Amino acid sequence: MSVALAHPASTIAADVTQAVSARELGVRFDDRAVLQDITLDIAAGQYVALVGANGAGKSTFLRVLATLLPAGDGEVRLFGQDLARAGPRVRGKIGLIGHQTMLYRDLTVRENLEFFGRLYGIADPSGRARLLMDAVGLPHRADDPVKSLSRGMGQRVAIARALMHSPDLLLADEPFAGLDIASALALEELLGHFHHKGRTIVLVNHDIGQSLRLAQRVLVLRGGRLVTDRPTSQCDAQSIAARIIGP
Amino acid sequence: MTRTLRQIALLVAKDLRIEARTRQTLGLVTVLGILIVVVLGLGLGAQQGGVGHRATAVLWVAYLFAGVLCFEKTMSVERHDGALAGLLVAPVDRGTIYAAKLISNLVMMLAVALVVTPAGVVFFGFDLSAAPGQFALVIGLSMLGFAAVGTLFAALVSSSRLAGGLLALVVFPLTLPVVIASTQIMLGIFRDGQDLGGMALGVLGAFDVVFLAASWVMFEWVLEP
Fold first, then answer.
1. Per residue in B144-188, pLDDT tens?
2. Rounded Cα gap, residues B47 and A217, in angstroms
3. What is the pTM of this model?
4. ipTM (interface pTM)
5. To the nearest whole angstrom, how far is the Cα of A103 from the nearest Cα of chain B?
6. What DSSP designation does A216 have?
7. Which residues of chain B lie closer than 8 angstroms to A118, CB-CB?
8. CB A168, CB A200: distance < 8 Å
9. Alpha-carbon dihedral of residues B88, B90, B96, B100, nearest 10 degrees?
10. Among A44, A75, B140, B181, which lies 20 to 30 A Cα-Cα from A131?
11. CA-closest candidate to residue B152, choices B211, B87, B85
12. B97 touches B14 (CB < 8 A)
């Protein structure tokens, strides 16, 4: 596990202290407000858990940060750069684990990882792919097509893909979904090491206890609004569950 | 610039590798193209001779349907398992993705044409040897314009629930001017014995420039994860 975590030093400029800055962020789908008036800062190097009920806007928020969805209202900055005007360069700082694997099912595990590594212009895509395949426990499936993997294995490759370029900001949307206990524990460890290297993590998770244990700060979204923003050290699972459900 | 070219090469190589492994597009499309040539040839009485010049129009029908299937297939690869989102999150310009998809489509159409065109030549008794270079030039320029529009709309239609069949309905009318120009030019060459003039090339080139520029600009707005 630790071998894959020999990440190069963070590329965040010393004066950029905020990985994410959102001001009055709003997103609407047709007439329905999915995100409303979200204002927050996430410091570089922070491990943040984002929780909420289904439809609360968690995935939408992550998609905005990942540049997959434009902010309808307000402003979002990643590492000081306005997302509305940022070019492809800022995307090189982002790693995304989504609901889908975002992999090519007819390519092998190795081919997928090396393809994305080269796309990001990393120095040694083959070596990096080997390290990450070891880290996610799939070196023996390196030359198998992704379509032959189980859902959990596919998820592990997706995690490796997201980490190929050692992103400064990792956006993880329910990364534990579909993983068995051993894989989930390995991923917890992987994310922990990643965080200790100074990287920022925004973790969307339905497991409140796990979120409070892993992250430094918890954000609760309800009905598209940010209703709680507290250090995890000052929260317990019951109070967070109450905030998710609402009054 | 070097980075962009490297990314285009990577994306094209990825598309071709997937096609080489699955063979899900070229096999189907080539068979379709040959079937079109045979069915239209039988309908037009190709075996009785004297209709060789009609092969150019028949070949275009085959290229059109084969091309639309190529456009759909190369884009559908990106739709499985959200692969397109992986590309869109990467530091890759949308124009780079467009250029790569266009090249992948042109390579596949070329592969299809290399099989379907000889079939048309043989079936119609079409004397391509009269001006093979001019034929290749006209078809190449025309396919570029056709693929430019097809690549754009394949991206648009692939994000729609109406994907099946919609692409042909959108692309055929839009590319009709270039197809008509192409067939008229080839009739002039192969039926009337005219030389390929600068004017004809200018018309096809103008279509290509307009289609490429418009598609390049619009691609960013139609590409949804």
1. 999 999 999 999 888 776 656 788 888 999 998 888 889 888 888
2. 78
3. 0.89
4. 0.87
5. 5
6. S
7. 6, 10
8. yes
9. -80
10. A44
11. B211
12. no
